[in-house]
Amino acid sequence: MNDGCGCGNVATSPTNRAETCSDGGEGGEQAESGRLWQVREIRFAAVALVLLAAGYAAGWAGLSEPVELILKAAALVVAGSTFIPATLRRLARGTIGVGTLMTIAATGAVLLGEVGEAATLAVLFTIAEGLEEYSIARTRRGLRALLDLVPARVRVKRADGEQSISPADLAVGDTVVVRSGERVATDGVLVAGRTSMDTSAITGESLPVEAGPGTEVYAGFINGTGVVEMTATATASDNSLTRIVAIVEAEQSRRGAGQRLADTIARPLVPGVMVAAAVIAIVGSLLGDPTTWIERALVVLVAASPCALAISVPVTVVAAIGAASRHGSLIKGGAALEAMGRIRTVALDKTGTLTGNRPAVVEVVAVAGYDVEHVLDVAAALEERSEHPLAQAVLAAASPLHPAHDVEAVTGAGLTGTIETRPVRLGRPGWIDAGPLASDVDRLQRAGATVVLVEEQRVVIGAVAVRDELRPEAGTVVAALRGAGYRVVMLTGDNHTAAAALAREAGLHPGAVHADLRPEDKSRIVAELRTGGPVVMVGDGVNDAPALAAADVGIAMGAMGADVAVETADVALMGTDLRHLPRVLDHARRARVIMWQSVGLSLAIIAGLVPLALAGALGLAAVVVVHEVAEVVVITNGIRAGRARRLGLRDRQRRNMRSNVV
């Protein structure tokens, strides 16, 4: 809607909203109001309400009729000034909306001599708009409050010593000093000192994170026990916090199915109601008393106003997204929120999602005549030139004594090279014959490890087992998801034996494991899973990009500072605690229930009021009161979505899939 009900699309950014609403003064500057009284519509409605009450009091006191009329007319002018001028300008551009219905109804009431009723309509409509504006501003502040986590002053090292400057004056490369208890002003990398960082305000993770030289830190983190120095890697206007707020505010204009339904119903309903009211007035006037039927037509016009319908979904969306952002989940718009509330299947990537993406060497096996240290040295000599994820684990376990040269990668197989004059190879079983190590390879793979064989001078000399351990919370999260009624599957490029071992530890059924997958295979599996209902894919947002795109909702893990993850996924979990996943899914499911409650109530109000108005059972004032009370109820219901709950495992199991019936 582009008219009435809070100035059209409430999901736009504050800047755009201010520009849109400035056309007539609907909202705009008070979009970030902190108190109800600061909302322009509420102030105007209060003044108009006093004038209206004075007008009725004058009539009851027996004062002259002109005094009563002037007071009521003044109330109409004050309240109507908040929406009538903007409505007329939009009408001149060919745009009609709820405000158009209210303007016509108020004008008709005046023509019928019901100035008091017209003023009552204008006052109540203005109050409803003000309450909507306040609710949106209130929920949006939860998101924008992230920016308040940046300190007002920051210490930087200069040639002449430390200086206190505004965060806005920070430049990339500045050395920032962060003392105990202070917040980090921008993103950076620690270069001196060790400490523990409280990241809960940003990622939602409750436990402090140990940090030292080389650790990446982000704006809003709280320094714990020691003084540290960091090199700024972003300015105050381009750090992770400002990017998060900018992305969410830009993406909030994306509508979910519920909001599209509200728009779809409201858009033709407004002109349809106007035509119906005109027909009622004309036909009724020909068959009966013109005054009576014109008045009924005006009442029908107001009764069918879809104002509550137009605001029901946006208020819920803004409230739910703001609440999720305060608990470490970045939801990019109403479309993602609504889709996430319909999810039936959760597809989890293994590496970096179910596991911590920190592979380590768990065992080294050597054949007779060779020792474990020599096997590791050969493996490390080859991996030193490799960018494979397992390379870091091997290099952390050993430092090569003799670096390999002429190292070449064989795609999907391993590495070849030369140490001194000896040819060496490292790769997966199958490409290199395991020989006497076949039983050891099978044992290690069944334990969930990835095994690479090491060959020297065309003879296998040993095997290195590397394993990426499950996150400590993985089992609990899988149990919570299954208890809530979701089907949970795992997608991985690892071999099936290793994947099945990790899946068992996580509590997944063997049939839920899809292994040996390339990126395009993951995308295909997700497409197949969608035949059984909406699917959410959870991955790192880079290697899993095809699968994230193929799913109904893509969720990126650990998105703080990862531009690709934040920009490509529909939802980003800002921390690395997997427990955010069932929490945000439950939050979206609950928000969807609230959303459809409001839509249903709005439609029921219209369906009930129109026949009563047409039959003459309700007058203009009664219809207006019912409508505006309904708007308040819808707004209040939508605000409930801003209360994010932290459900435990038992709560989810007890609820199971009850909310999926909506």
**What profile does the largest beta sheet have?**
7 strands, mixed
Query: What value does the Rg take, in angstroms?
Result: 32 Å
Number of helices: 24
**What percent of residues are in strands?**
15-25%
Give average pLDDT, whole number.
Answer: 80
- The proportion of residues forming helix, as a percent range, comes to 40-55%
**Overall outline:** elongated
Low-pLDDT regions: 1-33, 646-662
Task: Calculate the terminal CA-CA distance, rounded to whole Å.
Answer: 25 Å
> Structural class, judged by helices and strands?
alpha+beta
Number of domains: 3
Instruction: Give the tally of β-strands.
Output: 22
Strands ordered across the widest β-sheet: 10-22-21-20-11-18-19
3D architecture notes:
The protein is of the alpha+beta class and 662 residues long. The chain folds into three domains: 14-144 and 247-324 and 588-661, no CATH class; 151-235, Calcium-transporting ATPase, cytoplasmic transduction domain A (Distorted Sandwich), CATH 2.70.150; 360-467, Calcium-transporting ATPase, cytoplasmic domain N, CATH 3.40.1110. The strands form four sheets. It has a seven-stranded mixed beta sheet, sandwiched between helices. β1 (154-158) and β2 (161-165) form a beta hairpin. α4 crosses α5 (98-111). The protein is elongated. 51% of the residues are buried. The model is unreliable at 1-33 and 646-662 (pLDDT under 50).
